[in-house]
Design brief:
Structural class: mainly alpha
Radius of gyration: 17 Å
Number of helices: 5
Order of helices and strands: HHHEEHH
Shape: elongated
């Protein structure tokens, strides 16, 4: 059975964010600033329990930015297993908590006039 989700007010929110972006002009500095914060927070969170802790995932965390996007990635093949866990291993999230910490600051600065 399909599930339908309706988000009310998304058009207004999207328009508001677009207006704020227009006011800020060049977003590349903002993307670099908060992308760097996100990268550093993810790296500091990447402290894992277990007997095979090599630091490879922490070292693989990278930032790429454009004028409108910041992308922070963990490039080890198993980083998703660390973040989400498996049936044999508890999750050890590091990316989502980093985003949860940095995102409110980004939105607050974006909303400033």
């Amino acid at each position: 059975m399909p599930v339908d989700i309706k988000i009310v007010g998304i058009e207004e929110f999207t328009q508001y964010i677009g207006d704020q972006l227009d006011k800020k002009g060049d977003m590349s500095q903002l993307m670099q600033k908060y992308g760097s914060k996100l990268e550093q927070k993810a790296k500091s969170n990447a402290q894992f329990a277990g007997k095979y802790t090599t630091g490879a995932t922490r070292q693989s965390i990278t930032l790429t930015t454009t004028s409108t996007e910041a992308k922070v990635s963990a490039e080890t093949e198993y980083s998703g297993y660390l973040e989400l866990g498996t049936r044999k291993m508890a999750a050890q999230p590091f990316m989502k908590p980093a985003l949860d910490a940095v995102y409110p600051e980004f939105i607050e600065e974006l909303m400033k006039d």
